[in-house]
Design a protein that fits this description.
The complex is a heterodimer of chains A (116) and B (109). Chain A is mainly β and 116 residues long. Chain A contains no helices and eleven strands. Chain B is 0% helix and 56% strand. In chain B, strands 2, 4, 5, 9, 10 and 11 form a six-stranded mixed beta sheet that branches. Chains A and B meet through strand 5 and strand 10 of A and strand 4, strand 5, strand 9 and strand 10 of B.
Chain lengths: 116, 109
């Protein structure tokens, strides 16, 4: 079975532009989470989606948004890019989060975003 | 805000030596996970510890969860070059993972 896939693998944008990152979860997984990993740091939680609904949001500005599609794939959108948005954006999928639990998450290889 | 501090931040040792990496927090987590991440890849789950005081072994790696479920340690015996990577602890709670600051481990052949 294929693991979590993300596209594109690398992306270069300039300040003020917007970007859309895509994630396909492992087959059968209904939950997708997004993380931002700045160079030299651990990943920071951005969003979690389950069955197309937002289940959690991290401490990120409204420039960050996401959605999940009926096939459980997901997009992360970032508007008005800033230099500080340069990071590795990771997507993780999990089978089914019980309310209040955190099941095992499987990570994709990430999208490396560079903002110039 | 839940914070997880890892120490040391960087560690470079000779092949065959032993090492311990620490993960500490002031918050209680329902479970704690350890990941290893290699350049250009996403984190890969090594282990999940759930019960306070729990010890799990994965070949040469030994993971321990603190009695109060606020801290954890990873001990590697006879380190090998293949152990090189970024080691991340992550606490589970409120349906999200809170990652630690990471320990970058380099094993010198």
């Amino acid at each position: 079975d294929a693991g979590v896939t993300q596209s594109p693998t690398h992306l270069i944008k300039t300040r003020g532009q917007h970007v859309t990152l895509r994630c396909s979860p492992i087959s059968g997984h209904k939950s997708v989470s997004w993380y931002q990993q700045v160079l030299g740091q651990g990943p920071q939680f951005i969003f979690q989606y389950y069955e197309k609904e937002e289940r959690g949001r991290g401490n990120f500005p409204d420039r960050f948004s996401a959605r999940q599609f009926p096939n459980y794939s997901s997009e992360l959108n970032v508007n008005a890019l800033l230099l500080g948005d340069s990071a590795l954006y990771l997507c993780a999928s999990s089978f089914s989060p019980r309310q209040g639990s955190t099941p095992e998450q499987f990570f994709g290889p990430g999208t490396r975003l560079t903002v110039l | 805000t839940q914070l997880l501090e890892q120490s040391p931040q960087f560690l470079s040792i000779q092949e065959g030596e032993n090492l311990t990496v620490y993960c500490n927090s002031s918050s209680v987590f329902s479970s704690l996970q350890w990941y290893r991440q290699e350049p250009g890849e996403g984190p890969v789950l090594l282990v999940t510890v759930v019960t306070g005081g729990e010890v799990k072994k994965l070949k040469r790696l030994t993971f321990q969860f603190g009695d109060a479920r606020k801290d954890s340690s990873l001990h590697i015996t006879a380190a090998q070059p293949g152990d090189t990577g970024l080691y991340l602890c992550a606490g589970s709670g409120n349906e999200k993972l809170t990652f630690g600051t990471g320990t970058r481990l380099t094993i010198i052949p």
